[in-house]
């Protein structure tokens, strides 16, 4: 409760040279403490006069700090809520992007399949006519199979000793007999194509067999007939072919008169 007026009233006493604790003790020891206390109060008033505004400002700033802290806490709570919401939305976004990418991948795979299917359909469309013709040809082959096999069997069994002209004559005679007996066969029958494939013929040619029809027919008879063939081979072409063909099978050659084998 000390005031400035009280301090002003005390100043004349406080300025006296003998107004101090040592002098007071000499005069009256009981009031020496009171003398020191009045000096301390006057000094406290001077200090407190400067501290009070600071205290007031401190209280004000503490209030502002508390308010700001409360706002910060509220803002932090909102931030946490928004962050949680953002995390949920981010997770939904990531899931949606994964689904989108999966759909894009599926769409691309479907597009490729469609393109492949379209190309296949277009390619197969061009094969339809050939397949239809092949189907009819297969039906004809089934019908004519007995006659064709009969001609091929006769060729292998009886045509070996004869030349090309007589072999053709035999086929014509057999066809007449089959016509009389109403045995169906293919008019355009190619016995060579029926009894051996082109790859085998090519391999025979590489082994030394000539590429003419008679030589190929002879090769068929040699490889397809059930009996051991006897080759009349003045030019040695058949001997060369057989040596090359069987050299990996342990062929043994026995030479006799006139260097024939």
TrEMBL record:
Residues 203-255 form the Dynein heavy chain ATP-binding dynein motor region domain. Residues 6-174 form the Dynein heavy chain coiled coil stalk domain. It comes from the Eukaryota. Residues 58-113 form a coiled coil. Pfam families: AAA_9, MT. GO terms for biological process: microtubule-based movement. One of its GO terms (molecular function) is dynein light intermediate chain binding. Keywords: Coiled coil. GO terms for cellular component: axonemal dynein complex. This is DYH5 protein.
């Amino acid at each position: 409760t000390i005031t400035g007026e009280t301090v002003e009233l005390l100043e004349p006493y406080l300025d006296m040279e003998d107004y101090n604790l040592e002098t007071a003790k000499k005069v009256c020891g009981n009031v020496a403490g009171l003398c020191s206390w009045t000096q301390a109060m006057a000094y406290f008033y001077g200090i407190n006069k400067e501290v009070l505004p600071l205290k007031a400002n401190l209280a004000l700033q503490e209030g502002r700090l508390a308010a700001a802290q409360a706002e910060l806490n509220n803002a932090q709570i909102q931030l946490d809520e928004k962050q949680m919401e953002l995390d949920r939305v981010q997770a939904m976004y990531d899931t949606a992007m994964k689904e989108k990418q999966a759909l894009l991948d599926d769409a691309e795979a479907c597009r490729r399949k469609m393109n492949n299917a379209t190309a296949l359909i277009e390619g197969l469309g061009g094969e339809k006519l050939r397949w239809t013709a092949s189907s009819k040809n297969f039906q004809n082959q089934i019908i004519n199979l007995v006659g064709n096999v009969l001609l091929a069997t006769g060729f292998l069994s009886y045509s070996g000793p004869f030349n090309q002209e007589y072999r053709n004559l035999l086929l014509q005679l057999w066809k007449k007999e089959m016509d009389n007996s109403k045995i169906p066969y293919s008019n355009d029958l190619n016995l060579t194509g029926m009894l051996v494939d082109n790859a085998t013929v090519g391999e025979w040619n590489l082994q030394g067999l000539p590429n003419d029809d008679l030589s190929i027919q002879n090769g068929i008879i040699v490889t397809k007939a059930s009996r051991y063939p006897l080759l009349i081979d003045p030019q040695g072409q058949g001997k060369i072919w057989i040596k090359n063909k069987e050299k990996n099978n342990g062929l043994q050659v026995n030479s006799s008169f006139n260097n024939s084998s």
